Amino acid sequence: MTTRGQTQQFDKALFKASVEKHLVTTYAKTPETADSRSWYLAVGKALAEISTGSLLETEKQLAEQNVRSVNYLSLEFLIGRLTGNNLISMGLYEEVSAAVEELGLNLTDLLEEERDPALGNGGLGRLAACFMDSLAAQEYPAVGYGLHYEYGLFSQSFEGGHQVEAPDAWRGIEGYPWEVVRPELGQTVGLFGSVETYTDKAGTICRRWVPAMTVEGVAWDLPIVGYDNKSVYPLRLWECRSPAPFNLARFNDGDYVGAQYGQLEAGNVTKVLYPNDNHDQGKTLRLMQQYFHCACSIADILRRHFAAGNKIEDLAKLESIQLNDTHPTIAIPELMRILIDEHKLGWDAAWAISSKVFAYTNHTLLPEALERWSESLIADMLPRHMEIIFEINHRFMTLVEEKWPGNNEIKRKLSIIEEGQQRMVRMANLCVVSTYAVNGVAALHSELVKRDLFPEFNELFPGRLHNVTNGVTPRRWLKFCNPGLTELVNEKIGTEWPAKLDQLSGLAKFAEDKKFQKRYLAVKKDNKQRFADWVQDNMGIELDTNAIFDVQIKRLHEYKRQHLNLLHILSLYHRLLNEPTFDMHPRVFIFAAKAAPGYALAKDIIFAINKVADKVNNDPRLGGKLKVVFVPDYRVSLAEIIIPAADVSEQISTAGLEASGTGNMKLALNGALTIGTMDGANVEIREEVGDENIFIFGLLVDEVLKQKEEGHDPYRYYHADSLLRASLDLLNTDEFTPGNPGQLSAIRQNLLDGGDPYLVLADFADYVKAHEKIDAEYRDQATWARKTILNTALVGKFSSDRSIRDYVNNIWKLKAVSVK
Ligand SMILES: *Cc1c(COP(=O)(O)O)cnc(C)c1O
């Protein structure tokens, strides 16, 4: 792997000594007794020593220069392993590889010892991680604020084909080598209690919150290392601890266990990440997590602001706070409370600051994902915040009355408070009203936000709604995960592209070059072999790298339609066995996905795919043409070996329901051809690579809406299409669950009698046709090579560096600051 100019002073002998020192003093192992894991920990600590120094230096220089910065607030950061990526950013990959070799170790093996910090569910958390990488790479001053969950997203295994969840203790017993605790940054957070009125010295009547309990927030920093520069930004994760280890009164009463109860309960606040993706569960503890996250983060932002000698009035000049979805919305009333109750600003002065500080990113139109909290729950846990939310709404309703006099229907629709048996606070409405910028995450999605979700808000606040199309960091998602392709690209267009991804377009002129095509396909083959070896070693399934590797990796969700993919597989199974003239190129269908533990149908789909896999992988009648692999425990480090090995990228959500997708970008960048609907960023990928280099199928957004309006009739498709009928009916047999018919029929039921809410049946025939086209085109390797090369060449737009520049130019208005 070629690295660019190393950005850190590196002395190999010194580094080796540091590794050995940590091995002995931090991990209590000798070089003779150390196993691979201890060596990884020691190497990680030795590197973290370097990055922590740079983090403090960056912090110091930015404070001195007192520059404007962005604070990225997210309940999730799905960062994945840090060691390999940080080595690349530090420009030390080769040097450290050589150093550890002299210690008798292999760097690639050591990197495999790191457990993924899985502090997120899927795309939303991964986006936050890519954005931190791109902020640091381009030196736009930033702090990421998240939660230090003791357990990240559950780890997944399969038993008899069923998903089994186990806790994910990502830090291990020894702790995570890259994190550093910052005790001096601790915060105290109130909860529950009441609001009282008092008169201050000036005779003004004031309100203040008197919490009934407090918990302590402890800051842990993870270093976000800037690629090819000297900046290191903090990803600051808050851990909740109880204020006092013991309740002394109880302890002296002899109630030893009860005395520690407070600690246990407070520890619970950041104990575990909620495992839902695109679904709001509305649990009390989740609201507590959200408030804890916001209270610690806002307090820390203000601490930095004042430490640099600034006045509260200048907050909006120096700080922007980006809310990653509505999860951190409670930060808005929290800042208002501090401005009014603690800094004694009047409402208008406080609002003038707050409404210029916050910006909000919308990630979904799915109604079940739009957060609403019951008013009574907020009033109980955060009584002063509820008062402030009411006041924001009251003033907003006055505005609505001015714009649409006497129109109660519009008021009901736009109000932050939803009336009903139990009044609810609509967090998205609170965000749109209280921020200076709202953005969707792909062009189509942002249009739908304007047109369907918030049309009146768009009229009321013209210019507030933006688009920022998502992106992915090319450092992790090409340079690190695909060294073979990296080397080939370097040879053709030089080594600047990881920081300037548009330069990949320089590859387009080699798309027809036979020699280049051969080498590009050889790299793909090597990557397929690397993954096939992994599957052989870990799952005992043998894969043929001449087959088409067809990949769908993402959270399991009905709207993502893994069951459409499954129906296609069943149709191939049916045709191979029943159509004498049917022929197909060998195909391996690769799935990876976690289902939320409470999502029954999603778990049924996993079970069905696993059962179908068992059968087809061992059915000699299929002549090895069809294989299905469901890789357990989908996570960033698994994506890093699957994506470079993919020929086909499945992006098949019901049009209008996937806000952007970023898996689609990673896969196209690594040369997989997309089969996809006109949804999310697929639309823009098609624009970039050209219609000939992508396989688009299915209903368009407005066709979906029309069909839903007119009443979608699944049985119409069932009766009209014999292949669909045969595929669906296989789910009612015991073909895949010998002796147990009906074990897979829940999916068929949902699609036929359940009304097929995601229009799987409506898109089936067109999907099958698109796959036939893929089959034909793959057989012509020169054509396929051209298309796959052009995919890599033409997706430079989807670098998260470009996303961040869009935010910087249109929303945050930051200047880059180069750290010396
Ligand atoms: C990129 C990524 C996602 C998002 O995938 P989509 O296909 O956009 O839903 C989810 N999980 C992991 C581990 C990822 O790397």
TrEMBL record:
Molecular function per GO: glycogen phosphorylase activity; pyridoxal phosphate binding
Residues bearing the modification N6-(pyridoxal phosphate)lysine: 666
A Pfam match: Phosphorylase
Highest classification ranks of the organism: Bacteria, Pseudomonadati, Pseudomonadota, Gammaproteobacteria, Vibrionales
UniProt keyword Endoplasmic reticulum, yes or no: no
Family statement: Belongs to the glycogen phosphorylase family.
Keywords: Allosteric enzyme, Carbohydrate metabolism, Glycosyltransferase, Pyridoxal phosphate, Transferase
Keyword Transferase: yes
Names of required cofactors: pyridoxal 5'-phosphate
GO terms classed as biological process: glycogen catabolic process
Protein task: Allosteric enzyme that catalyzes the rate-limiting step in glycogen catabolism, the phosphorolytic cleavage of glycogen to produce glucose-1-phosphate, and plays a central role in maintaining cellular and organismal glucose homeostasis. Phosphorylase is an important allosteric enzyme in carbohydrate metabolism. Enzymes from different sources differ in their regulatory mechanisms and in their natural substrates. However, all known phosphorylases share catalytic and structural properties.
Enzyme Commission identifier(s): 2.4.1.1
The protein, known as: Alpha-1,4 glucan phosphorylase
GO cellular component: cytoplasm
InterPro entries: Glycg_phsphrylas, Glyco_trans_35, Pyridoxal_P_attach_site
Catalysed reaction equations from the record: [(1->4)-alpha-D-glucosyl](n) + phosphate = [(1->4)-alpha-D-glucosyl](n-1) + alpha-D-glucose 1-phosphate
Uppermost EC category: transferase
